[in-house]
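OP here, attaching both records as promised.
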Amino acid sequence: MLSLFVILSIISIYSASMYLSPTLGKLYIKQFFWYIVGFVLIFLINKIRMSTLYKYSLLFYVINVVLLVGLFLFTTPINGSRAWYTIDGIGSFQPSEFMKITLILFNSYIIYSFYKKEKVLNTKRELLLIFTIFITFLIPSILAFLEPDTGSVIVYMVIALSMLFVSGINKKWFIYFFVFVIAFILLFLYFYFFKEDLFINVLGRDFFYRMDRVVNWNNGSGMQLNNSLISIGSSGLWGHGFNNTPIYFPEAGTDFIFTVYSSNFGLIGSVILISLLLFFNIYLLKITKTLYSLEDKYTLIGIISVIFYQQIQNIGMTLGLLPITGITLPFISYGGSSLLSYMLLMGIVINIIKTDKMKKAYK
């Protein structure tokens, strides 16, 4: 399956090259290089026991938090955002992409540690577990939000909620959570629409404009979204053909890679790609059902939730169904940090499968 993703990614990025700045170089060659590095990382991470990854997950978490803090101390803004470390001769490094790996491993370790002591948690222990996961989510989320990188904050929240949902805690907490979220959103929107001056004075004009972009995502007035919809809508059943993307839109090789692919290969090609993604997700879910270790099961659920959410968000925003949040399409969009983070996650999946077979063999 990963081999198919390599092919689809390379041809889509190659087709997007006509609208990318020449100063970026040949991104499709760079993407192929990052895929090679990714496969090496898959090989290396399978040399480490899953128990070791869980044991040092707190250390990984602390290192990643330090890297996020360092962005505000040692980097200069790129397009108004402090999200990358620039490494001469190699490219940029985005810590927020690797934080999702750390969060998944660390959350899994935390949840398993709670149930290792007590098979059934009482209300007090459940609240303590929720609070612990919330703090691990909150620290990197604040740092990512300040970069600003709202997309990563949502990804971290998806990880926390999905892993708590399968942790075995009482589902009433989720009802309370969603009631609180709805009430908070309504209050937020009230101040946003009816108390604009107070909103800006308290949270700042920059935050107001960021929220304006989200709240008004479906007005169709943005050139990026309009051109994306025209490009997809005009592609027909079979598309305009490979390397034929007739309409310009920004971020063609990253956030809007699905638009490039759909423009080239039309409805039929898009259905094939979405079917491959669904098959991949279902395969991972089937693995989850057979796992012997609860710790591994929590980890795999976290991985699946991230991949599935980003697929939905990325494709949805290119179709005007969801807000544009800068979320990439896993394995397809260009991006060294993004791609390597997902290759590492695949390495963990393979490691889990290998570990599970060993545990069952010795059971």
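Record two, same layout:
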Amino acid sequence: MEKKTYHIPVLLEPAVEQLAIRPEGVYVDLTFGGGGHSRRILQDLGETGRLYGFDQDRDTLANRPDDARFHYVASNFRFLRGALRWRGVEQVDGILADLGVSSHHFDELDRGFSFRGSAPLDMRMNQRGRLTAADIVNDASVEELTRIFRDWGELETPWKVASCLDRARKGGRIETTAALVEAVRPCTPKKDESKFLTKLFQALRIEVNGEMEALKMALEQSLKVLKPGGRLVVISYHSLEDRLVKNFLRSGNFEGRIEKDFFGRAATPFEVVTRKAITPDVEELERNPRSRSAKLRVGIKCE
């Protein structure tokens, strides 16, 4: 039987190029996953260089490269600074984060990330976590569901979807992805069914895993961890993530609010390299259609 590819790394060469790797440097891959970006970074590191790969999903342990320069960190990247300090690392030369969900998670139906097929309504990246998508779907209030679908899914009528789901769950608990799809069928647009379900499942996944809060924490810690001149390279896949990253690189906060010093000069923590996000070229889109929404942004920490 042919072995499935865990994940095809997105914007591989542009991302590593933007890290501007120094052979003796120390780097972090915040989203190790299938290890594609990490293996490419190791190609440019010298014998004394080091790379720390973070991942909270135990499935990724099998992807670790057999390389003494690589250090696997079994942790959510929200604990970036503490995890590095525990390993004796105060500052690093570059940080890479690919915020996409691995192909592995969509292809392994029993994880509940895909609306195709039927699987337990799980969606936990960290299988040790307690909260599942089923917990939210069955136990959250209509108001809470409305917030989740509005903020994380950017659905046009989140209150309508929440009410539709509430009516369905009164007939019994919704425990599978197929049952969820059926539950929201009355409010699913016929024309854009796939797009609608993608946003719905995205919203639940983000809530289950606390993704936006984790991203904010990692970005804020990156400023403390990066050396002056160090690079932050982030690949995002939807507008919520991209907005946070863009604003943070531009201003050091998530609202995009530019602070000024005593002399009225903009006090920005990064030199923004990518005024316009780098996106996959035609060749990559043909090779990996899942890369179509990827946006890469880069900042250099100011001296």
